[in-house]
Amino acid sequence: MKTHSTSSAVSYRDGRFSSSRLELADEVPVAISYNGSTHAVLMATPSDLKDLAIGFSLSEDIAAAPDEIEDIAVVELDKGIDVQVRLATDATERLRQRRRSIAGPVGCGLCGIESLDAAMREIRPVSAEIRLKAENVGDAVRAMGKAQALNLRTRSVHAAGWYHPENGLTAIREDVGRHNALDKLIGAMSLSGTNVSGGAFVMTSRLSIDLIQKTAAAGCGIIIAVSAPTALAVSEADRANITMVACARGDGFELFTHPHRIIGRTLQDVA
C-alpha cells in the first residue's frame, strides 16, 4: 500500500520564496475489527497492517498468543481500511474484558478506554535477563536513524525497532503514531518467532504509559527512547521491572529505572 504522497508547497529559504514539492507521510483511518465487530479505529500509516493487528491484539491482552488469531484480512474501503481479525474461541472473553470503542488520533494510545481500571491495567513484571553495554545505547539510536526509510523521505513518522547486543538493529517498523509503530514491531517479531526478551525496544518518540504497558505485554526488559518519558511512564516501568533509557542522543542518555541491565561505570566510579 502507498505510504507517502507528494504535495506542492511554497518554500522560504535565504530570504526568498520558491515553489517546491515535498513527500508527505500518508495517514488513514484503520479499523481493527474482531469477529465482525469494530473494536478500535486508529489513524495510521497504511503499511504492515497485519503486523499492526497482531501486535495490537497481543499488546492489548486481547490475544494471549499468535495462534489465537485464526485469520487476518485487510479490506480497503472508500474512507479507510478495515483490518478484519478472526479470533479463536479462547480469546472471545478476553476481548469483552478489553473492549474499546475509539477513534484515536495519532498521538493517542489510550483514547476511549472506558474506565480508570482499564487505563491502569494490571501488568506482569518482565523477567528478561538481557544486559546491554552503555555504548550499545548510542549504537541502537544511530542505527534507527539510518534505517527509517519513510522518515528519511517525509521527516514526519515515528519508528520502533528491536536491537540485539550482538546482531544490532534487526527489525524496524514506522508509523505516524508511535504506539502503532510499536504494535507493528511486536506483531512482526511475534510472526518471526523472535524472543524479544533477548534485546531492547528502541523508540524515536517520548515514552508514555501505553508504550510501557505494551513493552511489558511483549516481555521486553529494556526500552530506549530519544525523548523524555512522562512521570507516569517512569512509575509504570519501575512497577513492570523494565529498564527505561530515555533522552538517548549522541553518546549520552538518562537511565530512569532498573539500571542493572545497562553495563558501564557505576555512579560510585563516576563520583
UniProtKB/TrEMBL annotation:
Keyword 4Fe-4S: no
GO biological process: Mo-molybdopterin cofactor biosynthetic process
Matches recorded under Gene3D superfamilies: 3.10.20.10, Cytidine Deaminase, domain 2
Keywords for the protein's UniProt record, in alphabetical order: Cytoplasm, Molybdenum cofactor biosynthesis
Active site (catalytic residues): C108 (cysteine persulfide intermediate)
InterPro entries linked: Cytidine_deaminase-like (IPR016193), FdhD (IPR003786)
Gene Ontology CC annotations of this record: cytoplasm
Superkingdom as given in the UniProt entry: Bacteria
NCBIfam families tied to this protein: fdhD_narQ
Function: Required for formate dehydrogenase (FDH) activity. Acts as a sulfur carrier protein that transfers sulfur from IscS to the molybdenum cofactor prior to its insertion into FDH.
Name recorded for this polypeptide: Sulfur carrier protein FdhD
Annotated organism of origin: Roseibium marinum
